[in-house]
């Protein structure tokens, strides 16, 4: 899969949601309608950061390739070249998984 050619603006981040495994312990398969929206994602692209009151740029703390936990209902879903992504503000990123 080729990386999308997109550059988020300001303090926005483009992520690809990481889907949970369909089969759980005991071999039970969870139907799509019963699954919760994934909260884990991979950072695909980051914007340059937001500007503070004096016009100084504040860089974003995450970088391309980071695995992050995101707010459950934050951001905007977008489709690029048939692939689903999400654009969200840096504030909607809760943590970086290490």
TrEMBL record:
Keywords (A to Z) from UniProt: Chaperone, Cytoplasm
Q: Which PROSITE patterns does UniProt cross-reference here?
A: CHAPERONINS_CPN10
InterPro entries, per database record: Chaperonin_GroES, Chaperonin_GroES_sf, Chaprnonin_Cpn10_CS, GroES-like_sf
Q: List, alphabetically, the Pfam families matched.
A: Cpn10 (PF00166)
The keyword Cytoplasm appears for this protein: yes
In terms of CDD domains, this protein maps to:
cpn10
Which cell locations does it reside in? Cytoplasm
Biological role: Together with the chaperonin GroEL, plays an essential role in assisting protein folding. The GroEL-GroES system forms a nano-cage that allows encapsulation of the non-native substrate proteins and provides a physical environment optimized to promote and accelerate protein folding. GroES binds to the apical surface of the GroEL ring, thereby capping the opening of the GroEL channel.
Q: Which family does it belong to?
A: Belongs to the GroES chaperonin family.
What is the recorded name of this protein? Co-chaperonin GroES
Please tell me the species this chain comes from.
Candidatus Methylacidithermus pantelleriae
């Amino acid at each position: 899969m080729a990386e999308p050619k997109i550059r988020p603006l300001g303090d926005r981040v483009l992520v690809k949601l990481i889907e949970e495994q369909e089969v759980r312990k005991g071999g039970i398969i969870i139907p799509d309608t019963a699954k919760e929206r994934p909260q884990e994602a991979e950072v695909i692209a980051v914007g340059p950061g937001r500007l503070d009151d004096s016009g100084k740029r504040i860089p974003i703390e995450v970088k391309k390739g980071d695995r992050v936990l995101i707010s459950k209902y934050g951001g905007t879903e977008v489709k690029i070249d048939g692939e689903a992504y999400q654009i969200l503000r840096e504030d909607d990123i809760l943590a970086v998984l290490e």
